Amino acid sequence: MAAFSTFGSSSQTGERLHTNTKAEAPMGKSEARPFLFAQLDDNSESHLSKDWDPVAGDEIYNETCVACHGEDGTGEVPGAPDFTQQDGVLVQADDILMKHIEDGFQSPGAMLEMPAKGGDDSLEMDDIMNVLSYLHKKFHYKVEF
Known about the structure:
Layout: E1 17-18, E2 39-40, H1 54-69, H2 94-103, H3 125-140
Antiparallel strand pairs: 1-2
Helix pairs in contact: 1-3, 2-3
């Protein structure tokens, strides 16, 4: 069954989660890739060790990220990625996205480089994962929560 999970919490459906754990170069639309919204698969083990909190991610996004990425996720500064594009940056593997958030990144055509942790050195890896879960849920899958 192709669907997405709620961040590793499969207890409501009784189904186990499956994700591809290989970090690879960009892939075609039909190929599997690692992501927080895992496909439900009765024959697999969960590779997600924790439930990430998109509500906490929303709070961090609105405190740290919104100035450049915009409230609607379309980007407020030239070169900031549009998170709402279905074939945009959020289709990249989560390990790549986590690295960009943790270490900073300059998108092609961007006027400014995104600073490490969006300029908030107090962010921990759990915070980054919460933000990433928020980005997927709010902008990529457009799920209300």
